[in-house]
Structure formats: C-alpha cells, structure tokens
Amino acid sequence: MSRTLRRFALAAAATAAPLVTVAGLLAPGGGPAAASPAVASAAARAGATRAAHGAARSAACDLKALAAHKGVVHISFWESMVTANGTTLSALTNAFNAKQHKVHVTLVQQRSYTTTWVKYQAGLSNGQLPSVVQLTSIDLQGVADSRSVLPVGACIKAAHYKTSDFLPRVLAAYKVNGTQVGMPFAVSGPVLLYNKLALAAAGIASPPKTLSQLVADAAALEAHGSGMGLKLDPWHLETWLASANQLFVNHDNGRKGRATKAVFDTPVAKKIWTDLATMVASGDATTNPATGTAEYDNLLGIGAGKYGMTIDTTAVLGTVEAVLATGKYPNVQLGVAPFPVYRTSVHGGIEVGGSALYISNHQSPLSEAAAWDYVSYLDSTASQAAWAKGTGYIPIRASSTKTAAVKALWSANPGYKVAYEQLLAGKNTPAADGAVIGPYTQVRTAELNAEQSMFQGGVSPAKALAAATSQIDAIMTQYDARVGS
Q1: 190-348+436-483: same fold as 37-187+352-431?
Q2: Rounded to whole angstroms, how far apart are CA atoms 274 and 291?
C-alpha cells in the first residue's frame, strides 16, 4: 500500500483542506505483508537454496569481524521514510556516519513499504539485497519464511546488548517462536484524532474511550452537522480484538507455531462489526478506502468540517502538527486520544504497528557486524528520542522518554505521548502482540471484502465474519503448501 506523506500534502493543498498529511508510511497495521503466490514461491526457493548453502554460518553474529577490520565498511539501508520522517532518518544516518569511521551507511529510499517488500523479495532471486532493510510489522512471517535474514537476537547475544530498557511489548512483536527476528524501530499505533471544537459543539465533554461510546458520539456529532470518518482498514478489527485480548489466528496468533486457521469468528467480533455497521447504516459514519485517491478523506473531512473524529496512525502526527501550525485552519483544534477499546473492563492491548530493521544474511560476517552497529545506533536512547521528536513515532526505550527532547515534545504536544502510554498500558499477550501470518496482504484483502459486503451489500455481520474466516483459512492453507510449513 502506498500512502506517502508527499502525496497527502499534495492532496491537502489541492483541496485546501486542513488536517493532515497523514502519512501512509504505514499500511493497515504497519504496511503490506505477504507476497503474491509467485513471489512467495520464489522467496521459498531462494530461502531453501540459502539454507542448503551456508545459512548456518549466518546463524551467529561475528562482531569481532568489525572490531578487527581496518578501513571503512560500506553498507546499504533500504528504507521507506518520506518528508519529515525521511528528513529525520537522514539526519540520524549522517550523524552516525560522521561520529565514527568504521561503517558508512548509504540510504536507499523506496517509494513505500510495499515497494520495499516487493523489491526485497525479488532480490531473493536476483541477489540484489541490502545490508539492512526496513519492513512492516505484518511482514514478519514472510521475512522468516524467506530464511534470508540474520535474526537480530544473535547480535543481541553476541554484543551482550541489554534490552531491559525496551518496552517489552515492542520486542515481543518481532519474535517468532521465541527468536528475536527483527529489531523494532519505527513503532506506531492507532489513535483517535478529533476536532475539539466539533466535540464541544455536540456537547461531548471528552473523547470516547470504548467502541460503544464511539458509536454514541458519532451519532451526537452527526446530529450537530458532522460525524465520523471511518477508514476501511482491516487493522482496526484486529486492534479491537487485541484490546479485548482476543486472538485473530490459532497457535497463539502464530507466535508459537505457524498460523493455520482464523479464530476470530466470535461473539466479540460480531459485536465489533455490528457496531460499525450500525454507524454506517445510520449515516453517523462515512467510509473511505485505505488506498487510492480517497485514502485521506477521513482526515481531510475533519479539516473541512465534515467529520468530528476519525481513527488513524500516530505516524502522521509530525506532519499534522506542521500543517495546523500554518494557521490556515482556525476551525480545527486537534485532539489525540487513545484508541477506543472494545470494553474498559476487558484488559488486552493495542497492537504494535510500524516497522522493524532486518539484517540480511546474504552478505559477509563483516557486513553483518557493520549492519548491527548501525541498527543498534538507531535504537539507542538518544536516537530514539530524536526519532520520536522528528516524526511522531513512539520512543521504544523508557530512557528515551526521560530525555530533555522528549519531555519538551510531550509538554508542548501532549498528543505525542498518547500512543506511548497506550502501548505501555497494554498486556503483553499473544493476542495483544498481533498475528504472525505469511500471506497477510491476502488475509487483509479477505477482511476488507467482508467489511465492504457488510457496509455496501447489506450482508449481516455474522455472515460477513463467516465468509472472511473461511477465505482466510483457504489463503493460509494455499500459502503453506507453497512455502512449506
């Protein structure tokens, strides 16, 4: 999915609409996920070939190779950050290159996370792979299935790298069967974005904390001339399930074994989709796609006064604040609140969105060690503080939140702190950690098709859920047959 800040900024300028340039650095839940059947098969073949010709060598992280090397090691990093996020990443990388003379990193910007993932999978066949790659949270199983990366857990062990300062849930999001496959970096989460003026006009004293309150407030807003912008994003169903500590797929959400069946056709999911269908049918919420020319309508609608609230990713906050700071939109006072959970009496957690850093094992031990040097730098206390300040992403170290930079940021812009506290408050369970699924793009498409059949075709939530789970089971079975389980 291609949701770039640049495209949103152009859309906002063209429509003279306010609110945001919501970056689409993230696809639902963090980005694209699985390859097409043909690409998944190619990845499996390439991974099997690698495993047969020396992948065991890359099971260890030889940090001594870099320590003993004389001269500079040049490595490449495929990343997908644009506008404010891209500027911040470039500044961090330039600082890294300048502060030492062992490793030099060249950034190779891709157009989107989708582009990065597709290009990476193509590289499994043609050998054109980077030293480090940034991929989204839902690419995790596909990366593991490719057998093309050095699990960062190996470098954590070799470096005696302490992770106690990291938010436990962030690390857990990138573990498969107990192995730390990827290193979390750009972490985000869904939040409620709202116009304080619109809520006040509708007599709403505070933003909704639960899904039921969201339904009621959408009706109140609609009665006073606005409503809710509802992006058709399957990520949200999964997030509501996680908030209720409900699994999406079997085998502990694919965390303790390959996911083979969907398990979300439950009374909780029926209630979630029934509430959403009620809002749409009544006109209290208006849907828009999560891709294409209308993907920002939920955000642009807030600026235009059409909507009083919406749900979207925290990755947009840096650009949103910059747009509002121009003063062109005096009728919008941005509020940021936690994602309205299923029920406050049920304690789950909001899924970890965003992306992680992966080290390719299609390179020498020296380059792997150099890649780890850069990865660990990006996740240092100071770097994570600078990253959070420049982008709106969540600082993933507790120590980063105690720096002057983050303290000043949160004091001036309390909305930036919401996603961190929301993540910190969640339970560290397989349900809250999110699902690990190989063909995630196809799974999300099945979810989306079911939602659209409900919103646009009048299909009941129960039938829509049954159809979605049946299709997802078939998708996972077909994927497993291609890559091996």
Answers
A1: yes
A2: 24
More reliable by pLDDT, 20 or 426: 426
Q: What is the pTM of this model?
A: 0.87
pLDDT digits (tens, 9 = 90+) for 182-214: 999 999 999 999 999 999 999 999 999 999 999
DSSP 363-416: S-HHHHHHHHHHHHHHTSHHHHHHHHHHH-PBP-BTGGGGSHHHHHHHHH-THH
Indicate whether 15 pLDDT > 80. no
Nearest to 78 by CA among 35, 119, 26: 119
* Element at 355 (helix H, strand E): strand 353-360
The partner residues of 187 in beta bridges, in order of sequence, read 354, 394
Distance CA 11, CA 351 (A): 29
Nearest to 155 by CA among 89, 58, 79: 58
Return the CATH fold of 37-187+352-431: D-Maltodextrin-Binding Protein; domain 2 (3.40.190)
Residue found by looking up tokens 């919401």 in the block: 418
Q: What residue ranges in 151-262 does DSSP mark as E strands?
A: 175-176, 179-180, 183-188, 190-195, 228-232
**Three-state secondary structure along 102-156?**
CEEEEEEECCCHHHHHHHHHHHHHHCCCCCEEEEEHHHHHHHHHHCCEECHHHHH
Each domain of the chain, given as residue ranges in start order, spans 37-187+352-431, 190-348+436-483
* pLDDT tens track for 283-323: 999 999 988 889 889 988 888 899 999 998 887 776 677 77
